[in-house]
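Support request, please re-run this one:
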Amino acid sequence: MPPSRPASFAPPPAASSHEVLSALVVTADSSLVALIDTELHARGWKVVVAAGASVAETILADEPLSLVVVDTEIKGAVPLCGLVRTVPSTSEIRLLIVTPPQADDLAALLNCGADDVLTRPSHAADSPRRLLAARRLALVAGEAERATLERNLEQARSSLGVQTAFFEQLFESAPEGVAVVDSEDRIVRANGEFCRMFGFDLREIMERSINDLIAPSPHVRDAREVTKKVHSGQVVALETTRYRKDGTPLEVSLLAKPIRLEGSQARGALAIYRDITERRRVQQALRESEQRYRTLFDQSPLGILQFDRDLHVSACNPRLSEAVSYAAERLIGLDLGSLQDARLISAIRQALDGEFTLYEGHCCTPLAEPGFWMAAHMSPLHDAEGQVIGGMAVIEDITRRKEAESRLQKQTREMEQINETLQERTRQVETALQARNRLYAAMNHELRTPISAIMLYNDLLLSGAMGPLSTPQSEGVDHAQNAARHLLELVQDVLDLSKLEAGKMSITSEPVSLPALIRELLPTVQPLAAGRGSEIRVELPSEDLVLRTDAKRVRQILLNLLSNAVKFGDGKPIHLRCIPSPNAGASLTVRDEGCGIAAEDHARIFDD
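Re-run finished. Output below.
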């Protein structure tokens, strides 16, 4: 592309190579006018005639003149000559006065600044005087022509100097690399940008072939073809690859124009280079960005719709066409303002106002019964200046989500009903538990009292306080005492179960000697074991084993385990073992030799 001209420069106008000179003849003498007009017309002059001084003054102000001829016989000739010399715009004009053969005031007229004097012929037959006048006039006209030519030449020189300086500065300040080559393709001029662009010093490239410098193989053939076309008079514009001094390629646009003089063949060429590497990079990035956008647009699992400020659809992707069962060709140009959904139209207009909005609603078309639920994310589209030029809607099919929400709401209502039912049943269970706890409390009070009285009387009978008993009687009372004691333990178990369920079971931690506790417990259990034909075999440590625990609860656990072993031991020996454990505790083991618990019931041992 050609370089742009700097805004601060404008080339000055060139001087004309041919100029028609004008002469003003101030006279009322027609023969004098004819004489002057004949002579000057032959030299290519333009003659303007004024019959009086006042008319001449007007012409002097309006007409560019090179010669003024004043007839001294007109009124006001002397002041007119003085005006010609005193006005700056006419002071350089050649002034010729015409006098009669015997002029009385010739000196006064010459003092007014006349350049020469012409004597008027006395009559038409005065050939010598007319010839002399004609020659004199020719001489003055020639001087005027030379003065004008010199003046124009000086103006041309000045104009040429300004133009040369202008074009020199334009050449050096051009943002493109510019080189001038001769007819043999050698560089004769190059600006700084050309040298910078290709990495050369100006002295390195002068008089060298431009193609050899920046168009080596494989581009030299194309470069020579460009040179051939330019030297034949063609203008060539193309984008190509040239090379820097260090061999790195450079993408450029090239404008090559022939340089020729008027009527001659091309004498050289002007080559203008612009670095388009960044433009190519930007164009490539733009193409890749557009390709990515198009891929996302076409393959997006969401429907995408674009619309302009007039609410007309400008683009849509295949997913949207599939969702609404309309071909893209039918959707393009659709007037969204004709839709019946006021909320949707409001969301679209908000996007055109620069806002980001979300619309959720049901979409139904004649070809897509029964329709679908959609969520449309609306956003504005801006141009390079940031002005909103349209909008985009990214549309998601949320039918499944809506159905899931409906099912969830239904399940929530069902769960609320179930919860209400459970709460009612919980209240009923709590009422029943309260009743049971009251029963447990009554049992504890009502049963413990008579059992304690029975055991008291049994103790009195066995002690002989109420008289001696026979051996059978003593054995019977002893059995009754054991049964009463067992019944009291059952009542205590029921009470403990009530406390455990209520979370009120208390633990009293204190130092307990396990061997002593076992020795204390044995008299209570041994009668029961003896009654079943079982022998309790005890294994205790040689030294005392004291632990910090609840003696009552340990005694109760051992009693339950031993009672269970007596009950299911089939009259065989029962083994009670107490030994220290490695973790500073103790291990208590109760083992009977009965049939044991069935294997299928092992998992339920601690359920109840």
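Confidence is low (pLDDT under 50) at residues 1-17. Residues 401-506 form one domain.
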